[in-house]
Design brief:
The chain has one domain: Up-down Bundle (Outer membrane efflux proteins (OEP)), CATH 1.20.1600. It has 13 helices and six strands. Strands 1, 2, 3, 4, 5 and 6 form a six-stranded antiparallel sheet that branches. Helix content is about 65%, strand content about 10%. A hairpin with an 8-residue loop joins strand 2 and strand 3. It comes from Franzmannia qiaohouensis.
Length: about 500
């Protein structure tokens, strides 16, 4: 720390006048060294200002630096039907699903944590911007006492203002403010991503529950059919028209049907409890609401997929957050490098003081400007250099993470598109198979009761029919889940206009 006093004026006088002024100062020889140190420091500051470290390059979605594919390699499923992504849930034909999503987002700990991180980022941005401005404090004090044995009782009161300001010559403060702004935007994106994740999780659980209810309905029909067959077979066997082995087989088949039914009901109960926990709903009330449309799977509206993958990335909040993390890491690197250069701080204060002692009152104003302090980092054991190197590595890590997020985003969309295309191709064949196995079972059942077909043939056609019907239900669940995955992969209601608005806000502020 090197305080600057009137020697500053002497240091910048012409050479002859400066020499005379130095001789006139008391203690001229010691001050000569200090004066030249000040002059040298000022020259160093001027030189350093011209070599201020440059900001590291930024990588934005869709830029030439972003490793993004130029086109999709999976068929697009929308077929010309376009749907607004931000209003997608409202287009479902299931009001209960919308209610559960809204309730789940309000009570989700993930969203709450994202909100807390957003609040911390907002506070950090305010703090970093305040560091660029002068600070001002006010103080008020009073005391009463006798300073000595022969002194009268005295009362002293004072009030004043203190001012300080660190000049951001090398951009360390500005870099910190830029990093805080980028982290605020990243946190805002993270909050949206948390809401999208919660919505997708609740919707997926809800679809699984509705599919499970449909499977229960099929299992009940199958169990009832098996029980009737077992009852008829037992009566016929008792009359001697069927061998006892067929009665045992029919009873075993009925028992197996009950086992399957109980297993399916248990799975549905677990899904209801999971949904109740996710949306913080009373389980009894939730069961009543679910009972109004048991086994009815929701019908999602078809989504629009843009022709260019880079355009889709602008709809994903996690990609926007990763890009802002790169900017923040770049600003951190600039800040650590700027901290290796000198710092200049200014200070001052002004106030009023009143002293009353022995019937005599004295009051007046006191003030001071300074000191102006220059901090020259000379030796710190390599701490600043190590911090700069660590910040550079963090920047490189952020760029690697960003590139990986881009690849993951493209993969998520491609996977969802492949699943949609696959379910669309299988739907017709699965429905045809279920219909064919159902007719085959009806024919075999009629033949069995007529004594033409055996019980083994009946149970074989039954298993085929049940498996085909279960496959159709599972295919419907898989297709709806694929639409939800696509919604999640496309950013789930994070429109590109909001991203551009965030950039505009950052530019204005």
């Amino acid at each position: 720390m090197l305080p600057l006093t009137n020697d500053i004026a002497v240091a910048f006088l012409p050479r002859r006048q400066r020499a005379a002024a130095i001789k006139a100062l008391p203690g001229s020889k010691p001050r000569l060294l200090a004066t030249w140190l000040i002059t040298t420091a000022a020259a160093l500051l001027t030189g350093c200002a011209s070599i201020m470290p440059q900001a590291l390059p930024e990588t934005e979605p869709g830029s030439t630096a972003a490793p993004v594919a130029g086109q999709w390699h999976a068929p697009l499923p929308h077929g010309g039907q376009l749907t607004d992504l931000s209003q997608w849930w409202a287009q479902f034909d299931d009001p209960l699903l919308l209610h559960l999503i809204e309730a789940g987002q309000q009570v989700s700990p993930t969203v709450a944590q994202a909100s807390a991180r957003l609040a911390d980022a907002q506070a950090a941005r305010v703090e970093s911007r305040a560091a660029l401005l002068p600070w001002l404090d006010a103080s008020i004090g009073a005391s009463r006492g006798r300073p000595g044995l022969d002194a009268p009782v005295a009362t002293e009161s004072s009030a004043g203002l203190q001012l300080g300001w660190e000049l951001d010559l090398f951009g360390a403060g500005r870099a910190a403010a830029n990093a805080a702004q980028a982290r605020l935007e990243s946190s805002r994106s993270g909050w949206h991503d948390a809401r999208v994740s919660v919505a997708a999780e609740i919707a997926t659980t809800y679809v699984e529950l509705r599919a499970c209810e449909t499977q229960v309905q099929q299992a009940e029909i199958d169990a009832q059919s098996r029980a009737r067959t077992a009852q008829i077979t037992r009566l016929v066997a008792d009359k001697g028209f069927r061998p006892p082995a067929e009665a045992e087989l029919a009873n075993a088949s009925a028992a197996q049907g009950n086992v399957t039914l109980i297993e399916q009901q248990t799975q549905c109960d677990l899904l209801i409890k999971a949904l109740s926990a996710l949306a913080a709903q009373d389980e009894a009330a939730l069961r009543r609401e679910l009972a109004t449309a048991t086994g009815r799977l929701p019908r999602p509206a078809e989504l629009a997929v843009t022709t260019m993958p880079a355009e889709v990335l602008a709809q994903r909040p996690d990609i926007h957050a990763a890009a802002r993390d790169v900017v923040a890491a770049s600003a951190d690197s600039d800040q650590t490098r700027a901290q290796r250069w000198p710092r200049i701080t200014l200070a001052g204060n002004i106030g009023t003081t009143r002293i009353a002692s022995g019937g005599i009152s004295t009051n007046g104003s006191v003030w001071s400007i300074g000191p102006v302090t220059v901090t020259l980092p000379l030796f710190d054991g390599g701490t600043r250099r190590a911090n700069a190197q660590a910040a550079r590595v963090r920047y490189q890590a952020a760029t690697t993470i960003y590139a990986a997020r881009l690849r993951e985003a493209i993969r998520d969309v491609e996977d969802a598109l492949v699943m949609l295309d696959s379910t669309a191709k299988r739907s017709e064949d699965a429905a045809s198979a279920a219909d064919g196995f159902a007719r085959s079972f009806e024919a075999t059942d009629a033949s069995y009761h007529a004594g033409i077909a055996s019980l083994f043939e009946l149970e074989d056609t039954r298993r085929s029919m049940v498996a085909a019907q279960s496959a159709v239900i599972e295919l419907q669940r898989e297709r709806i889940t694929a639409w939800i995955r696509l919604y999640r992969a496309l950013g789930g209601g994070w429109p590109a206009t909001e991203v551009h608005a965030a950039y505009s806000e950052a530019a204005v502020q």
